[in-house]
Amino acid sequence: MIAICVVAVVGTPDEDGKWHPYKYGHNGKYIPTDEGKYIHIPNPYIHIDNPYNGGFGPYTHDYEPYVSAATEDRYRLVMTPPKDIPYYKDGYYKNNGIKIISQKHVYDEDKYDFNFETENKIRAKENAILKNPNTIDEGIASSGFYEYLGPDGFMYRVDYTADENGFRPKVKRLETPYSGKWVLEKVN
């Protein structure tokens, strides 16, 4: 029994990992020391005279002028305005309205399909089916696209799918003969 007590007392560590400021005889204040202090060691530069010729002979002056960032030409990309788009001119629709060039549609009990195109380049197409008919999960799943010619001359197209996972569009911006072009314009 005595041996167990001796081992228990001797086997306990003195340090428990906590901070005890009075354990070592000071009040917990910072005591500066020279430990870690920078000590300068003088190391003077010694010049060794070794002229460089580079194997190409002595230095010769280049007569080309130095081109700095301040003197070189700078450019930026600029979008040119679109060409005349007849569909956006004043008075185009006032007398005639917008004509439909083609239109088709098929409506059945469990599906429908349609497409159309107008004279001002608006097009749309959609195919849809009825999923899980006569159940609690009944719904329509459709896919298609619509596109139109914007006032900047670009064709904007949205391809989409709509079903039980929601509406998921993919948008594209396509160049046309009417669209403006990116050109480099000199800044300075």
From TrEMBL:
GO MF term set: structural constituent of chitin-based larval cuticle
Keyword tags: Cuticle, Signal
Matches recorded under Pfam families: Chitin_bind_4
Domain of life: Eukaryota
Entry annotated with the keyword Signal: yes
InterPro entries assigned: CHIT_BIND_RR_consensus, Cuticle_Struct_Prot, Insect_cuticle
GO CC, any one term: chitin-based extracellular matrix
Coiled coil regions in record: none
Protein name per Swiss-Prot or TrEMBL: Larval cuticle protein LCP-30
Organism from which the protein derives: Papilio machaon
